[in-house]
Write a structure and sequence with these properties.
Layout: E1 3-8, H1 12-23, E2 28-34, H2 40-47, E3 51-55, H3 63-70, E4 78-83, H4 89-96, E5 101-104, H5 109-120, H6 128-137, H7 143-154, H8 159-169, H9 174-181, H10 185-199, H11 204-213
Parallel strand pairs: 1-2, 1-3, 3-4, 4-5
Helix pairs in contact: 6-11, 7-11, 8-10, 8-11, 9-10
């Protein structure tokens, strides 16, 4: 199945480079592009992309605002953030909003292509362990209020689900959680899916962020 990609970046040279790079992959098709986030909703309706490569800093509607709006849509396309800085509070906010991950603009072409494939397959393009490192490098404001809210949300999980959520926050894969908790991998996957549904989250990265906000990692 062809992966439909929308590129949103204010730099026409970067858009052209990404289009050329992705166009070389037989399973990927760039269906559109935009110079800021203002027209993204209309482009989604018209072009039905599976993945959006979204710059954060753009004139007009920035990528952060656009990401938050896009991810609130039913059946929203996945969003991968394009950024120059890997330790950035805007990147964290985009991940909290449901972006599937981020790639640096100087990432080798092959890795960007693979990132698009992974996201289209429902996999985040950064591990919770990377998210943890990002969190520790970014100044965190409003931590106390987020902790109260995070603890309240996690209270809706049962003991096993909370245990698995913490393991996800520690950066463990399903196989590692399976070995640690003596559960089968399919059982772990079922629990993770249930956690996402209960907490109304999009992906494992958001679970990791919520566990961090609740201060459950030691």
């Amino acid at each position: 199945m062809t992966i439909r990609v929308l590129i949103v970046d204010d730099d026409p040279l970067l858009r052209a480079g990404l289009k050329l790079m992705l166009g070389g992959a037989q399973d990927i098709r760039v269906v559109g592009e935009a110079g800021d986030g203002s027209g993204v909703q209309g482009l989604i309706d018209r072009l039905a992309p599976d993945v959006i490569l979204m710059d954060i800093r753009m004139p007009g509607t920035d990528g952060l605002t656009a990401t938050e709006t896009v991810r609130r849509r039913p059946g929203a396309p996945e969003v991968v953030i394009l950024t120059t800085f890997d330790a950035d509070e805007h990147v964290l906010r985009a991940l909290r909003a449901g972006a599937a991950g981020f790639v640096l603009k100087d990432t080798p072409p092959g890795e960007i292509v693979e990132s698009v494939r992974r996201v289209a397959a429902g996999q985040p393009v950064l591990s919770p362990a990377v998210t943890k490192r990002l969190i520790t490098r970014v100044a965190d404001s409003g931590q106390d209020s987020r902790k109260v809210k995070a603890v309240a949300r996690l209270a809706g999980l049962n003991d096993r689900e909370r245990e698995i959520a913490v393991a996800v926050g520690e950066g463990k894969s399903n196989a590692e959680i399976s070995a640690t908790l003596y559960l089968s991998v399919p059982t772990v996957k079922t629990h993770v899916s249930r956690i996402l549904t209960k907490l109304d989250l999009n992906n494992r990265v958001q679970i990791a962020l919520l566990v961090h906000d609740a201060d459950l990692l030691h």
